[in-house]
Amino acid sequence: MQDYDPRSTFADEAAAIAHDQRGDEQESVALLAELAGDGRVLELAIGTGRIALPLAATGLTVDGIDFAPAMLDRLRAKPGGEQLALFEADFADVDVSGRYALIYIVWNSFFNLLTQERQTTCFANVAEHLEPGGLFLIEAFVPAFLHRYDNYQNVSAEHMGTDKVGLAVIMHDAAGQRLDQQHVVLSPGGTRMTPVAQRYAWPAELDLMAKLAGLELADRWGGWNKEPFTSDSALHVSVYRK
Question: Is the per-residue pLDDT at 217 higher than 80?
Fold first, then answer.
């Protein structure tokens, strides 16, 4: 997409309609709390606190980074949001002080870094902010499904009701490992479009980025309940250790 600006995508309107529930909150919080032990935790691309707030409610100290002030404002306004230390910054830079027992990023947000260079930089900066033995967790989709796209494009219905319909329009650049997406909502009140661009990476590429940063793969599961990671897994939860 030409002239794509992620700051406009995650501005006020996006924050107002951000998903507060995805359905996997209980499982993801339980696993993150187990991995953190009693150490400090940092969420990259914290958004409106879908995971961070229930994780902090377990008694852990949770900090967060996001480059979108509207997302952080919405998070601060939620019960418990005022207790979190929040930093407005590009999460790839990990622009915080101190070290953490666990740093994590969920729901494909790592792929919002649009070049391999920025993704590699993120790994390196995460490693600098981990305690010895600290963990970095990434949840992301496995790109295998993209081969099903006809002519490297896809249009699908995200939701449909009597008053509105939502469509996802996706163009796939296989050579650049890039997805350009437009999420369109049509209703009597007008049309709303939310563009999103992502640079995906296969698990093996993430493993190499981790190795370059001085991290090693500790575990990889096919879901938050520690399901085995197989050729049929649609997503992976990968944990790297310093």
Answer: yes
